[in-house]
Predict the structure.
Amino acid sequence: MPAFKARLMDEAAVTRALTRIAHEILERNGGCENVALVGIRRRGEPLARCISGKIETIEGTAVPVGTLDITLYRDDLSPAVSGDLPRVNKSDIPFPVSGKRIVLVDDVLYTGRTARAAIDAIFALGRPAQIQLAVLVDRGHRELPIRADFVGKNIPTSHSELIAVKTHEFDGECAVDIFTL
């Protein structure tokens, strides 16, 4: 069982990081025209909605937000690997992805496998003009050549540590904690 080590970001720090990411998305894309956010299930969903709200506050324009389930695109959840069939949840992308600048939003970037699966899932829906990646925490240890375009906080970790992003929707609080395995 993982043991609590430290709180790395409290709610105020998470809010500041998401506000900065919203500004960086607007800066890089010259505003919010043709931009859509797609939160990767689970904790990427509320983070994407939060960033969208911040963009709307800054620009006065709402950006579309979708939710992506990447289960069928993962390379580590097949019955041959885990012994069980993966549980698939529904993606909800209420806009065409073709021609859009899609910003994938996730809580933690670690090996890069989740981001790769999300890119595959997006391309199965259409051909976006561009795909960018926003993460609250980048903890290193990449196995694939994937880099986030927008990072809330870089937190170097060891393989024996676990980063837990907590959101109000799933955990009743907003924070980032580190645990030792």
Summary: The domain at 3-72+92-180 is CATH 3.40.50.2020 (Rossmann fold). The first strand starts at residue 3 and ends at 9.
